[in-house]
């Protein structure tokens, strides 16, 4: 049986959603289509505090849609790395691909700055070294204009571990990203 790669899935989704973007004819006040103004896209990196000798780091992408002006739903895909303490001169690490989703709400916005609160849940996929479910809640500051925004976030993460020998993770995390 052939494996379906993440790259093929991304390309397939791009072809599926391209007609939706092309068919959005209504132009908003920003000069872009109303559909594009409602998209929430973000690429970022995050890191968490150390807990039980594990320091998690994550590369992630979020893609979502604002169904009302202040609230949006998003899909979350990422790769989490858990860096362990040195034992015998080497560091142990775990790799965990994550896939999930979440809900965000814009608390306040104006003059190129917005403050969002988000909650999300994501589960490990495939042959992950650290199997489990990640639950996140945090505040995110979006700064920028001309469509692109820098995102800075602080939050709390609980990772409910299902791997033998690796306990649950609870800790603060910070993220940096860029998005629409």
What is shown here, in short?
This protein has two helices and eight strands, in the order H-H-E-E-E-E-E-E-E-E. By secondary structure, the protein is mainly β.
Range of helix content: 10-25%
Mean pLDDT: 83
- By helix and strand content, what is the structural category? mainly beta
- Quickly count the helices: 2
Distance between the termini: 38 Å
Q: Going across the major beta sheet, what is the strand order? A: 1-2-3-4-5-6-7-8
How would you sum up the major sheet? 8 strands, antiparallel, barrel
Question: What is the chain-wise order of helices and strands?
Answer: HHEEEEEEEE
Shape: elongated
Contiguous low-pLDDT stretches (5 residues minimum) are 21-27
């Amino acid at each position: 049986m052939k494996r379906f790669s993440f790259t093929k899935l991304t390309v397939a989704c791009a072809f599926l959603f391209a007609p939706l973007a092309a068919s959005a004819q209504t132009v908003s006040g920003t000069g872009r289509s109303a559909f594009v103004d409602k998209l929430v896209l973000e690429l970022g990196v995050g890191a968490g505090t150390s807990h039980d000798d594990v320091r998690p780091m994550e590369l992630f992408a979020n893609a979502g849609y604002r169904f009302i002006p202040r609230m949006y739903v998003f899909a979350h895909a990422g790769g989490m790395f858990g860096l362990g303490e040195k034992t015998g001169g080497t560091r142990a690490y775990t790799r965990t691909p994550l896939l999930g989703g979440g809900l965000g709400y814009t608390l306040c916005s104006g003059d190129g700055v917005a403050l969002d609160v988000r909650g999300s849940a994501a589960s490990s996929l495939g042959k992950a070294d650290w199997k489990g479910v990640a639950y996140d809640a945090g505040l995110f500051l979006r700064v920028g204009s001309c469509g692109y925004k820098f995102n800075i976030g602080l939050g709390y993460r609980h990772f409910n571990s299902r791997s033998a020998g690796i306990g649950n993770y609870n800790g603060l995390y910070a993220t940096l990203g860029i998005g629409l």
